[in-house]
Structures are given as structure tokens and as C-alpha cells.
UniProtKB/TrEMBL annotation:
One of its GO terms (molecular function) is RNA binding. The keyword Cytoplasm does not apply. Coiled coil: none annotated. HAMAP family: Ribosomal_eL13 (MF_00499). GO terms for biological process: translation. This is Large ribosomal subunit protein eL13. Belongs to the eukaryotic ribosomal protein eL13 family. One of its GO terms (cellular component) is cytosolic large ribosomal subunit. Keywords: Ribonucleoprotein, Ribosomal protein. Pfam families: Ribosomal_L13e (PF01294).
Amino acid sequence: MLATAILSEIMLPLDLRVLLLIVHNEMKHNNVLPNGHFHKHWQNYVRTWFNQPGRKKRRRTARQKKALAIAPRPVAGSLRPVVRCPTFKYHTKVRSGRGFTLEELKTAQIKLRFAKTVGIAVDHRRKNKSTESLQANVQRLQEYQSKLIIFPRKQNKPKAGDSEASVLTVATQLKGPVLPITQIKTDTKARMITDEERKISVFRSMRVARANARLIGIRAKRVKDAEADAAMKAKK
């Protein structure tokens, strides 16, 4: 009552007096002042999630049906390559890619048609830009081949390359990821910067290398045009 009487005597704008009353009567501690801008009938447009438990159950049953349908193949699906994440921010991380390149399959001595039948994902658009990525994925393919169990199309007529009957009897469906990918950790110890390293600018070297890679076609065209002009002048 005292606060109300004091506020009524002080000549303040109406909005400010209401705000001071709210702060005096309701607000406690260092919290945000209530300032809700609501539309009419906003209660009718509140987003609800009452179907969340049902969705969870449907997803689980769908996963179980898929696992039964593709058995004895792995639940996670096809084998994926190890790739670097794009952009400068994330390129230190590795993750699973879309599919193996044709060069990786050729180096691992795996035919394209055969790869698709044994759960190896293939992406004909992807290109290998480094020897390290090529070798890592070839090694991944070879490891997968060494652990691969191939069931014959007809049980009575096994073909060359199919697994033995003793192996087929103990084979189980793989539940987790196929050859899980682990992050590469490089532990570097702190040390003093040498005088030779101070003379070299790594940032500038990277900029020059990028510029050379970007302008290689333009520079080659300039050289070719200059040679053509010189040949034309020599003829004249």
C-alpha cells in the first residue's frame, strides 16, 4: 500500500508506473522482466508434441522390420568410406562418406558390379585428391573383405568365392556400425619456434599455393596465346 501511495503521488508515465508495480509485487531475484507480446487466441496455436512417444515406438518397429528384411546383412547398411569434412573449420575431423571412388575399388582389386552385391557403397562422382585418403580407404576395403561372409545364392550349389558351410552356420547379423570410424588424434608437444621457422610464413605459402592452383589454367592459356602470336609474327 505504501509503494502504491508513493507511486500515485509521483508524476510518472502510466507504463513506467505499471512496470514499477510489477517489479515491486512479483519480481524476485535477477530475472528477465515479463514482457510477452501475444496475439489474440494464441492458445489455439501452441505447438504440442503428444505424438512423441508414438513416433518413437514406430521408428523402433520400423528399424526392427528393416533388420529382419535385410538379414543376414548388417543392420547399419553398406560400408562407407572415410572422408574429411569440408570447409576450413571442420577439415580436421573425419566422418563416413557417401561411397567409395572407382579408383579406390580398382586399387583394392574389387569390381564395380561385385562391390554393389556385397554391401560396398560406390560414388562415381567422388574423386581422390590425396594419396593418404586413397590408401586409407583401400585398407578399409581390404579389411572389410577379410571379414566378409558371402552366402551362396543357392544353398545346394555354392560357387567359387562363397564362404564355407562351417562359417555360415555361426554367422550372425552385425548390429552396430560397419567398421566404426575413429577420430585421428595427433598429440603435439609445445616447443620453441626456431629462427628458420620465423623466416617462413605458412599463411603466405598456403595463399600462394591456392592461387597457383586457381590460376594454372589461365596462365597456361596466356603462354599458349603468346606462343601462337609469336608463331604468327615469325610467318609474317
